[in-house]
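ok, trying the design again with the full structure, not the truncated one.
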């Protein structure tokens, strides 16, 4: 079965946009419904949320955070350690001497920034796939979703720090995980296509529509399963509300929506009208 699936992926991954499936409204509705149904039958387990991300969040949010414990925890993960040191030694932060250890990086970058880098790298698995066949099918989409999530999470954290001189782990997670519904929906769409139930690879416009129409329902279910804070689940649940009340309760969501809209406008090939409408609201 896997050999057959691999052939399908290799064939569909190279299909040019103009040769992909064109879905009318009825077909698009039907495929969207199948994606939701597939997700309901293959929901993630609570333990699938990265354990390292949970540990870093717990430590960073503790009022008496132990810097040594956080440094030790990050130092145990080569990928996270390398990412933190890379940022510390970047042109923006570089000092006379190279930063070679996590404690020095913590002193240079600050606790929250290092914690955000660690959480972002740890959450990479939520925007990735285990099977090569899935990666081959939608390789550019997985990378795009993760890049957007990281860009928006760090931008939101920076903006709130500049405006309020503080930033919580929840606002970073809000920027990081409001896309989680899209990533999980894409997994279900890939599974349907690989299993021969999707009829082929739709055009990018149809894929974007399917992910957009399913991201809230799938995202809320996933975040609930991961035992995320209720505030974060509510943010996901109401991210497409139109208009959004201009009250303090929804400040974090306003930040997420503004940054997300600007990021989508920045990306090439994006229809800007929906994003501009979102900014006006």
């Amino acid at each position: 079965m896997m050999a057959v699936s691999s052939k399908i992926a290799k064939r569909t991954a190279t299909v040019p946009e103009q040769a992909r499936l064109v879905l009318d409204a009825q077909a698009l509705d039907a495929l969207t419904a199948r994606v939701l149904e597939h997700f309901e039958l293959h929901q993630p387990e609570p333990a699938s949320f990265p354990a390292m991300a949970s540990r870093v969040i717990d430590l960073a949010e503790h009022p008496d955070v132990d810097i040594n414990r956080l440094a030790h925890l990050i130092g145990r993960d080569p990928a996270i350690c390398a990412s933190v040191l890379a940022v510390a030694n970047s042109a923006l932060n570089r000092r006379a001497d190279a930063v070679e250890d996590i404690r020095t990086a913590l002193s240079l970058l600050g606790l929250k920034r290092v914690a955000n880098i660690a959480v972002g790298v740890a959450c990479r698995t939520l925007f990735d796939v285990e099977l090569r066949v899935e990666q081959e099918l939608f390789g550019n989409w997985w990378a795009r979703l993760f890049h957007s999530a990281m860009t928006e999470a760090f931008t939101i954290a920076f903006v709130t720090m500049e405006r309020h001189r503080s930033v919580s782990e929840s606002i970073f997670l809000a920027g990081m995980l409001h896309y989680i519904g899209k990533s999980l929906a894409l997994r279900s769409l890939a599974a349907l296509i690989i299993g021969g139930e999707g009829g082929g690879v739709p055009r990018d416009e149809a894929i974007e529509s399917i992910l957009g129409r399913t991201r809230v329902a799938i995202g809320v279910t996933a975040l609930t399963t991961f035992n995320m804070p209720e505030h974060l689940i509510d943010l996901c649940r109401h991210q497409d509300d139109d208009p959004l009340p201009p009250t303090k309760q929804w400040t974090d969501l306003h930040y997420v929506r503004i940054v997300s809209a600007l990021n989508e406008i920045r990306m090439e090939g994006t229809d800007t009208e929906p994003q501009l409408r979102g900014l006006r609201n």
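Keeping the full-length input from now on. The chain is about 70% helix and 0% strand.
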